[in-house]
Amino acid sequence: MTAELTGTAEPPSGSLEFAALYAEAQHFYAHQMRILDAHDTESWADTFTEDAVLELPTMPGPARAHAALTHYVRVGAARRRRAGGRLDHWVGMLDVRPRADGSLSTRCSALVYATPSGGGPKILYVCVMEDVLVRTRGGTWRAAHRRVVRDDLA
Amino acid sequence: MTAELTGTAEPPSGSLEFAALYAEAQHFYAHQMRILDAHDTESWADTFTEDAVLELPTMPGPARAHAALTHYVRVGAARRRRAGGRLDHWVGMLDVRPRADGSLSTRCSALVYATPSGGGPKILYVCVMEDVLVRTRGGTWRAAHRRVVRDDLA
Amino acid sequence: MTAELTGTAEPPSGSLEFAALYAEAQHFYAHQMRILDAHDTESWADTFTEDAVLELPTMPGPARAHAALTHYVRVGAARRRRAGGRLDHWVGMLDVRPRADGSLSTRCSALVYATPSGGGPKILYVCVMEDVLVRTRGGTWRAAHRRVVRDDLA
To answer: Is residue C6 one of the residues assigned to a domain?
Structure first.
């Protein structure tokens, strides 16, 4: 865990603004994960800023999110083949920290489950995602930085 | 997926009002699913409008929610018998789209798990629920339309 | 279930203030469960009021939360040994009821899963937590009372 998120015992004091940011961040993840699970790579890329950086446990180092799309799509397809069916993400346990520049430091858990054709869902693994979200001029949020950690690989 | 929810890449711009609606919708589902899992059919019916329409994968076509209650109760009881214990719903991944008439188009995932007596919980399936929620005069929300989709039956 | 939470069919009418409280309560649980799963007992104790009371299915009766810490830590360590790896909590299905004195009656579900080294996550059980949260002078929330119920032990 980063010091930024765990070093302070105090979560930010409550306010209407925090509620708005928290709802928007929850909405962002529900939206982005549905796009990811639908393999809509173009819309998915659109949820990252142009120069977004991505750090994944399956990649040797940080990479530009848009350049990493091909890698992401290939890894996802291989996972679905191995799982014998569709893969889905379930996001929760969201922590949101507003930053002075208006961006958000977030951390959430993403449960990844497979649904083989004709069978029940099976949890494959749980990731922790640490993002920096920035608000675009249109008012929507995009990820400027994402670091994905898998606890079971730690 | 409906065009309304996936056709636009942009989620609604953030605002305090969106936060209020998002919190109320989350609260509605936590409340309604607890009622459902407690088999409190009268309170459950009360979470739908009088003329609400229900589309379930276990039904041949759309039906009035209040008329479908008997079906729902029977299917639920059969499922609990097969599962050998209690069934519970866990709702998440909520998408909320305010509509011009003040109602809400929502989509969420509902994970259904069984807890057999003496055993650990087992995930049975994951549904996607697409609802239209309307606000009643008392200020509470009710479902006016619900379409339940099971990904593994698609 | 307590009469307070289930006796009324009507959830509280929506408002900006409810949204703020709901977001803060969600944030409180995401924060507190991460602290618990990281075995940071000092920070964890800090999420309870000085005189908080804890009722756990593994304890013979209600106890002061701070005094129960040792018990909690020992039970947690024994569980991790049995599970052969880390244990994590996933909180959801949150119900929040503001009370006249400014405190919150909450109920949520906590899914507890184990991740054995080298294996995938396995759901162990699901608890229901019924809390009273109070706001401290600093603006943060703390639990003044927690009752944990396990459905599968009922």
So the answer is: no
d(CA C134, CA C141): 6
The Cα B20–Cα A19 span in angstroms is: 8
Q: Looking at residue C81, which CATH number applies to its domain?
A: 3.10.450.50
Contact C43 A14 (CB under 8 A): no
Distance from CA of C154 to the nearest CA of B (A): 9
B23 → chain A, closest CA residue: A23
Q: Does C9 touch chain B (CB under 8 A)?
A: yes
pLDDT of residue C151: 67
Q: Cβ atoms within 10 A of the Cβ of C12, count?
A: 17
Looking at the predicted complex, does its ipTM rise above 0.95? no
CA atoms within 13 A on the CB side of C123: 23
Q: pLDDT for C69-88, tens place per residue?
A: 877 778 888 888 888 888 99
- Tell me which residue range forms the domain holding B109: 15-153
Average pLDDT of chain A to the nearest whole number: 86
Q: Does B138 touch chain C (CB under 8 A)?
A: yes
Contacts of A91 in chain B (CB under 8 A): 92-93
Considering only CB atoms, C120 lies closest to which of A6, A18, A123, namely: A123
Neighbouring-strand partners of residue C97: C105
Alpha-carbon distances of C110 from A21, A69, A71, C81, C127, rounded to whole Å: 24, 34, 35, 20, 5
For residue C32, the SS3 value is helix
Res C68: pLDDT: 84
Q: What pLDDT is stored for residue C4 in this prediction? A: 40
Contact B91, B108 (CB under 8 A): yes
Amino acid at B56: L
Q: Tell me, yes or no, whether B9 lies in a domain.
A: no
Q: Is residue B10 part of a domain?
A: no
Rounded CA-CA distance B145/B137 in Å is 18
DSSP, collapsed to helix, strand or coil, labels residue A127 as strand
Note whether A113 contacts C: Cβ–Cβ < 8 A.
no
**Residue C36: CB partners within 8 Å, gap ≥ 6?**
C44, C76, C89
Q: Is residue A3 part of a domain?
A: no
Strands (E) in A32-103, as ranges, are: 48-55, 63-64, 85-98
Domain count, chain A: 1
Mean pLDDT score across all residues of chain C: 86
